[in-house]
Write a structure and sequence with these properties.
By secondary structure, this protein is α/β, with parallel strands linked by helices. The protein has seven helices and six strands. The strands form two sheets. Strands 3-2-4-6 form a four-stranded parallel beta sheet, sandwiched between helices. Strands 1-5 form a two-stranded antiparallel sheet. Helix 1 crosses helix 4, helix 2 crosses helix 3 and helix 3 packs antiparallel against helix 4. The termini are far apart.
Length: 215
């Protein structure tokens, strides 16, 4: 095997392991319902030590903590905002422990205008609409949109289903999110836009709005 390919896969395994640890740290830090200054400083140092400043998920957390601690203290409002950010990274587990509400940290904010006709959509995660993902794909095509199997240069929207697995980082839909985040950083127009299942269905109108989502 080519040495460059070996190094690529080795680097990818290290990055996956670090991301696993990062998500675990986020869950641990919010377990008691608060994030204090010592914990914020620890997480900032950990991300820096593990070269996470340029990662699409770890980087924004690092930058936020660095900004909060620029004056040498973490005030109550900053602590609350950091808690909410880490909560969105870790996800919220419902009582049955089988599914997690998809993390809002990935979504474009503000939500972009969603155009369906002649636009390319890639789906990821578990969808609440219909009985299977194919129902969502058929719906997009009915409204004139196209559906791709992977995130690429022609992708206009990555749609994240209402639910994701707790092990999203190891699954194909986790890879799609990661790929989209990297592509956005090099994009001049913000594509691919990352939107929720709810945003997609709302763009189609009330006639398809049949799922009782939480506000």
């Amino acid at each position: 095997m080519d040495i460059d390919l070996i190094m690529h896969f080795s680097s990818k395994r290290i990055e996956d392991r670090d991301l696993d640890t990062f998500i675990g740290l986020a869950k641990g830090l919010i377990a008691d319902g608060v994030v204090n200054q010592t914990e914020a400083q620890f997480l900032k140092s950990w991300i820096l030590h593990h070269n996470g400043r340029n990662h699409p998920l770890m980087g924004p957390v690092y930058n936020k903590i660095r900004m909060f601690l620029s004056d040498g203290r973490l005030d109550d409002d900053e602590a609350k905002e950091l808690f909410e950010l880490l909560l969105s990274v870790a996800g919220e587990t419902p009582d049955d422990g089988e599914l997690m509400k998809s993390s809002t940290v990935f979504f474009d904010n503000p939500v972009p205008d969603v155009e369906i006709e002649e636009r390319m959509f890639v789906l990821t995660g578990i969808f609440a609409y219909g009985r299977r993902r194919a129902d969502v794909e058929a719906l997009i095509r009915r409204y004139g949109g196209r559906v791709g199997s992977s995130v690429c240069n022609s992708t206009d929207y990555l749609v994240i289903g209402a639910y994701v697995s707790p092990a999203w980082v190891h699954e194909s839909y986790g890879r799609k999110i990661e790929r989209a985040l990297y592509m956005k950083r090099a994009s001049v127009d913000g594509r691919p836009f990352i939107i929720s299942e709810r945003s997609l269905l709302e763009a189609m109108g009330p006639e398809v709005w049949e799922v009782d989502y939480e506000s």
